[in-house]
Amino acid sequence: MSATDLPLVGGKAPVLRRPWDAPRIGRWIGGLIITAIVLGQAYHFVGVDPGEMIGGFAGIFNILRQGMPPDLTVLGDGLQEALVSIDIAILGTVAATLVSVPLAICAAENVTPAHWAYVISRGIIGVTRAIPDIVFALLFVAAVGLGPFPGCLGLGVHSVGILGRLYAEAIEDMDMGPVQALRSAGASPVQIASQAVIPGVIPTLIGVTLYRLDTNVRSTLALGFVGGGGLGFLIFESLELFMFRQLATYLIIMLVMVMMVEVLAVYLRRWIR
Amino acid sequence: MLEFALNPAVEEGAAPSSTAPGEVLLHITDLVKQYPNQDRRALDGVSLQFHAGEVTAILGANGSGKTTLLRCAMRLTEPTSGGVQLLGRDLTALQGEELRQARLPAAMIFQTSNLVRRRSALANAATGRLGRHSGLRWSLGSVDRDDLVAGAHALDKVDALPLAHQRADTLSGGQAQRVAIARALCQDPRVLLADEPVASLDPEAADEVMSLLRRLATEEGLAVACVLHQPEMARWHAHRVIGMRGGAILFDEPASTFDLTDLDRLYRGGRT
After folding, report:
1. Distance between CA A237 and CA A229 in Å, rounded?
2. Is A204 exposed, middle or buried (0-12, 13-18, 19+ CB in 10 A)?
3. Using one digit for the tens of pLDDT, what is the confidence trace for A200-214?
4. B1 falls in which pLDDT band (50, 70, 90)?
5. Cβ–Cβ under 8 Å, residues A254 and A82
6. Measured distance CA(B26)–CA(A239) in Å, rounded
7. ipTM attached to this prediction
């Protein structure tokens, strides 16, 4: 058996390539060089300093040591504000969901009612997704004033972009059979959306929404730092005022809260399936 | 694939030739479909009539234009030229809402059941009546009581009433296809267009579905056009067999005269 026994392909002897031929090795070496350059410049411009890093750890350890034992007299305040944080996340997520579902139907290539609707909804999703929630919250704090409400608005507007995109992707991946069947049965676009699209993707929609709720609870902490209210504001305040024993209490509450929400979200997602 | 015709049992059981000369329900004239960026026409001037009470099997190799024919007839795919008259109304002249209404008398069945998986068989069947409603309740994803009743009657016609409250994703392939036919019946159609309705079913379920389609034609007077890949199914269950090749009609004859020579021409390019 030799290569010359093979029949001609397209009038020429077939070329038999090894999986690792020279051009392929060349491409890999090129890729590695580019990666090294990217990492090198990042290391340089970030100003990585291993000594400083060790010092930083010592500083954090020092804060924690000064925070012992945690000041439990602020436990009530902390729990109250933790509830506010969760409420901000719930309202923001629910409001974003209500806006995102119709938006996503317009923004999904396979079911969009019209091209202009697709362009507009993709635009809205793109802009709200590109601007971080903390920037929206800063804008709303400037417009509405300090407190949980501007935080909630900021979170909601950014979540419209995130959820809209994820929903639209879920819809684009769905089985188009039922849509085609109902279209041929003379159903209108709104009927197709409510009778075939939504029932088809609802488990994914709920899963995505719960995941977003989970992320949003954590985001509210950062929103607190810019005046958006909730537990984050207390953490920010106690850190600024060097009240490390209060800070310790708040951090423990935060840890428990985040873990509880995460477990709950996982449990709910499993239950829906 | 061609052996069946040599089997005497099948010869004896060949479909009856008596074709009730029914009214023409769907009339296709000189239908042409040219997809962009393809030199060959997918449909090259097809003219056909489909009659009430008749099951017409459409055979042909992959890419011969069978599916395109059905889709163009319903204008789910836009034909390049030609006419489609459904109950005497020219579909090719209509647009939008008028087209949606005018094609209600024709219902489609697909290779897979295309049911909404998370809903019950009954709810799925009832959605066949979406075309006649524009109310808020339907737009919000619910159904009217009248439509549930109609859905139940349709399920009964396909012997699937006991499955009414089973979720669609728990049905077997044959059951799901019968529910899909019930959904089509809910549309109250005069014409049924089936695109390979038994291609993903086991032989027994396939036989059941084809018998059902034949019963609907003879008992309810529907015109049934059915794209098939199984010549033996066509012989058994259809009244009339159409062979397509390269976007054109190769033969159009009663199922009783359809034989091995026709099959040879259809799938082997007529080499003798």
Report:
1. 11
2. middle
3. 888 888 888 888 888
4. very low
5. yes
6. 79
7. 0.76
- Burial string for B177-214 (b: 16+ CB within 10 Å, else e) reads bbbbbbbbbbbebbbbbbbbbbebbeeebbbbbbebbb
Secondary structure letter of residue A113 according to DSSP: S
A206, A144 Cβ separation under 8 angstroms: no
Q: How far apart are CA A97 and CA A159, in angstroms?
A: 8
Compute the distance between CA of residue A230 and CA of residue A73 in angstroms, rounded to an integer: 18
Distance of CA A140 to the CA centre of its chain: 21
Instruction: Give per-residue pLDDT as tens, B79-125.
Output: 888 888 888 888 888 887 888 888 889 999 988 888 888 888 898 88
Residues of chain B with Cβ-Cβ distance to A185 below 8 Å are: 104, 107-108, 127-128, 130-131, 183-184, 187
A 10 A CB-CB count for B226 gives: 28
pTM: 0.72
Measured between CA atoms, the residue of chain B closest to residue A199 is: B118
Cβ distance A177 to B110 less than 8 Å, yes or no, reads yes
Q: pLDDT confidence of A41, banded at 50, 70, 90? A: very high
Cβ-Cβ contacts under 8 Å, A182 against chain B: 127, 130
